[in-house]
Predict the 3D structure of the following.
Amino acid sequence: MRGTTHRILTTLAALLALQLGSLVAPAWACGCGAMIPDEDRRIGVDREESAVRWDGRTETVVMRFRVHGNAERAAWIMPVPDRADVTLGDPELFDALEELAAPERRDRTYFWPREDDWPFDVGRGDGASAGAAPGGRVGVVGRERLGPFDVARLTATDPDALGDWLRANGFALPDRLTPELRPYVERKWEYVAVRLAPEKRGTPLYGELTPLRITFASTELVYPMRLSRLAAQRQTLGLSILADHRMEPRSAIGGARPEVAFSGRIDRPEGPVAALTGGAPAHLTVLEQEFPEPSRIDDDHVLRTVADTPYRRVVYTDRIATVAGVPAWLLATGGGGALVAAAAVLTARARRRRVPSAA
């Protein structure tokens, strides 16, 4: 008993240490931007959810982060291919999309008993499975306060000048991130810089942040990812895309193969989904992708139209086949003989448990 208690306490201590370690792990980048806390502070992104609407001319990205750590403020920057409008998003959008793309649940039966079924579950409990820089090289398009966000919309012709402006205006930027902005400067992209701060002063950023909605003109569906190559930990990307057709990435851009979790036509969008599509029908594609080694990310995601093949995940619940509550295998084999065989199996198991192990 004492040994069992010791093992349980050791396991709990290890789990606690792992959890505490995650609270101080830096998250320099996430999804489609860079999340930078104050100096000597840490912020981690538990989950990033993004919904994208694209009609062939205009793209809208709605993002929501779930964060943890000890940072009271953090800065975040996202490159965009054209002039952006920024507003607050609807938190209920993500619940609505999750409901639309929910897996189908089905029961699946099997004939012969498994180890968690009678008679093999004897003695096993209930049988449940375990389970502006100088020179004008930075231009300020606009700066607004949106709820907990201080949002600056910027242009830049020099990545170093952009880094200087951000640092001078309270948007801390690590030196190693500045070179990663050069490809966007060369393509004359613009930037959305955001300072995050909890509404109550002195409170660390924690939990789900208010969604941010960013809209810009774009003749192709693009999702910025390059800055995530600086992440110290593996990254997970989740995208819900509402467009005229099913959309998939042109390449994996250094991550695992993107997987389609849902594909289907939404003919009559409602609530926050209708607000995002303007009430127009759309094809919903839900994509998931893992980036085990973020340093291998070599580009932004560009998505292309593919065939509108519908897809919905199916989650099965396995149940043993029964007739009037009696296992079908027992009826089919003649209950008496089956019971004798089951008794023999259980007796043999009991004998094996009584045999002492070798020293």
Confidence is low (pLDDT under 50) at residues 1-34, 123-135.
